[in-house]
Design goal:
With about 425 residues, this protein is of the alpha/beta class. It has 14 helices and 17 strands. The structure holds zinc ion. The site of zinc ion (ZN) has 7 residues, from loops. Zinc ion (ZN) binds next to loops.
Amino acid sequence: MTSSTISPRTVLRGARWPGDIAIIGDQIVASGNVAPQPGDEVIRVDGDIITAGLVNTHHHLYQWMTRGRAVGCDLFGWLVELYPIWGRLTVEDVRAAALVGLGELAISGCTSASDHHYLVPHGDDTVFDTIVEAATTVGIRLHLNRGSMDLGESQGGLPPDHVVEDLDSIMASTERIITQHHDGYMVHVVVAPCSPFSVSSELMEASAALARQHELRLHTHLCETVDEQTHCLERFGRRPVEQLAEWGWVDHDVWLAHGIWINDPEIAQLGTAGVGVAHCPSSNARLAAGICRVTDLEAAGVPVGLGVDGVASNEVGGLFPELRQSLYAARLRTESADAFMPADALRLGTSGGASCLGVADKLGTLQPGMLADLAVWPGEDIADIADPLTGLVLGPDRQVRHLYVAGQPVVQDGQLLGYDLTEAHADLARKSRRLWA
Ligand SMILES: [Zn+2]
């Protein structure tokens, strides 16, 4: 997309932080104190706070169909309880969950969502088309992770056999989805086998080859729990990161969900290679998985972003609360009150996430030349807090006043423009109740 000098500018004027922002087309062209020009479309945002749009690096939108279950379980217990229910989901169920999940992300400040979808109802991979349609309806940028599982219970995996696919089907479907949906702008397709205990080595290696053939990114769950580590030691005789390297995945085009149970040499190894980590503090807390070593990872050069994870393990479903959660988790883990500050949390939620997704040259900061993905946060209730970022990150949970993706309004005055979110919630609840039986 191009901009020209004759295009009218949209100027967000009067924000408490970082001042004014001017947009032409899909790009930020000026920030700070922007001098007026004839023809400017001016939007007053006096006293508000503007940040780059939040980047959600790990989510499972379909899980909105199964919120509030397996509340007292760790990861493996939770999965074993939920897999059979997920096995009954239809494509229409996933559509309903994606509309709600993406809408809730947008009003919590997300301009980019990464959906790791690894359930293909009865082999019907149009489920991925449906997720793209939902993102288009909402107006949000999507990293569509073509997730997969090919190791059922009978082969030594954790999921029941009826929810996994075979390797050839996964590869053919992934090729189709890349061809049909990857535009490298609003939709990025990612090749994303699910987790060590649900995939074969063949799937991990074939996925890496396919992604690199198309110059796409790779994503998977890794080092989430001690149980996963035990599984890897028993099955492969290696720790998860060692096994990841064996599959050819320790490289700059990979980011991992969770990355909790990683030792010092492994952190250095990931940092040298440029492997990213999606930190999901609320989900990790709810499942008692552990606390990610965010400060150690960043010190070693690992890009770290934030993720909601699925709402079956984080019922809030918005990314904004993860800013504060990441700060609390880092301070609890380090037992240091200044090891991780509000600006650090915001960095994870914006530019850190963009680095994980391989788009940090276009997204994640408010510099001129970057894509105009930005969140305007109401500031009136935190006007008494001297540092606006402290007010934002440590203050009450909030929803955006306005949200822009590629310079286009997606949320205006707190309302999603693309569709009726209340009706989408009602439709989803009707579908979800069918699964309670
Ligand atoms: Zn996950």
